[in-house]
Amino acid sequence: MISKRKFMAVSTAIFITGAAPGFSQSTPSLKDAFKKDFGIGTALNNAQIEERDPQMTAFIARQFNMATPENIMKSALIHPKWDTYDFSMGDKLIEFGKKHNIKINGHTLIWHSQLPPFIRGIHSQDSIRSFFTDHIKTVAGHYKGKVFSWDVVNEALNEDGTLRKSVFLQYLGDNYITDAFRLAQEASPGTELYYNDYNNEQPAKRAGCIALIKKVKEAGVRIDGVGIQGHWHVGKLPLKDIEESIIQYAALGMKVMITELDIDVLPRNFQGADVSQRMTANEQSNPYAAGLPDTVQQQLAADYEALFNLLLKHKDKVTRVTFWGVNDGNSWLNNWPIRGRTNYPLLFDRANQPKPAFEKVIAATK
Ligand code: XIL
User: Fold this and answer.
1) In angstroms, what is the span from residue 71 Cα to ligand 1's centroid?
2) What is the pTM of this model?
3) Ligand 1 atom 5, closest CA
4) How do 39-44 and 255-264 pair as beta strands?
5) Mean pLDDT of 66-93
6) Among 116, 232, 270, 315, whose Cα sits 20 to 30 Å from the Cα of 244?
7) Range in 20-24, 80-84, 97-101, 143-147 the model is least confident about
């Protein structure tokens, strides 16, 4: 319990800095600004789905018209034991979406990370096949008519465009991706079905992604779109690769989405978003704990401006842009690839106040 004295101190601090959580009616709404262009989404965490903070709920409803669960539909959480599924949080998210007019993108059916622990004890092809089939049928079936779309398969590719040697590839062979889309289509016919990955704007991985899409299509199985996660780094946005990827994916008839957008401002010695990759902390790894220097703030704003100008140029091909978190305080980049850092990758600060990058993104629509 928070003591009354502490509460007074906190509320006074909020008053003095003017950083009241919530939003001001004068702050434009992203979803309204991009209404004619593409959907605007956010990742949602447990506290947000459970509406623990009414101001946060109102803020989300005002800014976003699409949402992706940050964790709760991953197999470890939704399918914790061999024959036990837990739909409680997912169902709350569906209610949240209905109540606030937000379309839900299910994330994700088949992914090699955040798997339930019991998978480690399975060493037969038959058992992996049963897990794979039951999982897709049960989860996609449960949310049939409730989610707008599914990330059917997530991160199946290596950086060189070959297939990642996941448990699924090892036991099921290279048709498993087509099988996943076929099962998802059967279980949830009206739902849009996507392939999602990071770095799939990079030429080699993109070529692998194109081959993957073609293989699914050639089998006569439906695939509706491709998600480029968009975990990028400040000052290093691969705009040319992004543009070429949008054009090439769209030429295959794919809807193109940026599905997990954030722009990391902290030191990093690798590219991409492999959740199992970690870095060791040192004295230089958390440089902005006391605040973001203006030069970096301006670079971040310029990056977001250039990116949204590009996405608007291709608004006939881009159907959605989803940020991986509502505000800087929620971002997974505060804890990955090093725990406990202070990152600033999104458009809203820790009190949901718009940052210079937000102003640039809104201005890009004018
Ligand atoms: C991240 C979540 O944000 C973290 O909370 C979790 O600990 C690890 O996963 N690619 C994806 C997302 O597809 O599901 C990942 O989300 C980030 C990288």
Assistant:
1) 7
2) 0.94
3) 332
4) unpaired
5) 98
6) 270
7) 20-24
